[in-house]
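Weekly structure sync, notes
Attendees: PL (lead), two postdocs, one rotation student
Agenda item 3: pending single-chain targets
PL asked that the sequence for the first pending target be pasted directly into the notes so everyone works from the same version. It is reproduced below exactly as submitted, 392 residues in total.
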Amino acid sequence: MSVWDDLPGQEHAVEQLRRAAESGSPTHAWLMTGPPGSGRSNAARAFAAALLCENTSGNLGCGECSACRTVLADSNPDVSTVVTENVTYMIEDVRELITKAQDRPASGKWRVIIMEDADRMTERTTNVLLKAIEEPPPHSLWILCAPSPADVLVTIRSRCRNVNLRVPSRESVTELLIRRDGLSPEQADFAARVSQGHIGIARRLARSEETRKRRETTVRIPFALKTASDAVRAAGTLVDLATAEATSSADDRASEEERGLRTAFGIDADATIPPQLRSQFKQIEETRKRRARRGIHDSLDRSLLDVATVYRDVLTLQLETNEELINEHMGEPLQDFADKAQPTETLARIDAIGLARHHIAANVNPLMAVEAMMVALISHHSNYPASRGARS
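Predicted structure, written out during the meeting:
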């Protein structure tokens, strides 16, 4: 299986990265951009694997050699991946990366630095990184990931080669889940539809019944909002679900990384880890804890997007656009919801969700932001009787 197989619907980007790896002298700074779910991090790791691939037949990124397997498992000593658990990167984090970039590769041709969420760098932090990107050592290669080029300061993006990714189509995600994960067409199609093409979330939905239950609880919250007490309870439920989702996701990824590390070192699943390797396995656990902390905000944002899909479906029914519903399995409750309100009220609810997402991104206390959102959603419910009369 090739390292490129996890990038469905990204043929243009894959071809660009494949050619660069095969050239033997790629640009020393890259910027992977695309919306959430487009696979920026997957593309960065696939590119790093292709650069270090040991395959001699010309099929770089084979996915079978030791270099490819260890890069994908985040255990290759020549690839450093950094993710901040803070709102922004600290200057100390970037200085540590710059020091790593000076080291010669341990076994491969390149020392690759992958920086996820590069849009979280402040201007001061960016200036520290700038010189390292302008004048990198000949053996170092930087890969920055961000939602769009505009999210990175012009001084950085002007020195990087941009690779733009898009959210893959529902069909391509469905095909990937069937081919790689062995799902039935019905399971794969459901996961691709409700995840709206987000590969990572689609995989979790397909693999985990608990993830599916959490999402189902989340999308049914709007139907239970009647009073202020309902709003407070619903806010607590949403934050608790996001915490559980973040913890579960971090645990799953850590398990995959540990399996990959055991495979790379030839250690059986139930065998004791040799003392000289324990520090590397301990690093996986420390990374898991950081991801869980950081993932709570990301998971909560995703939960709010799931709630927004309910109102998106309601608006679709109200405007009679004949577009496919994301939550089509809730057809009757959605239709009843749509019949009791006007499109302007639905739009106001969607705006309330957007405002909550903005507040959480600005580091407002998540529970307070979600409680305020729930109260705003209820305030529009008070118009139901008038809306019914106006429409009848």
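Discussion points:
- Strands lie at 29-33, 79-82, 111-115, 140-146, 161-164.
- The chain is about 60% helix and 5% strand.
Action: rotation student to compare against the earlier draft before next sync.
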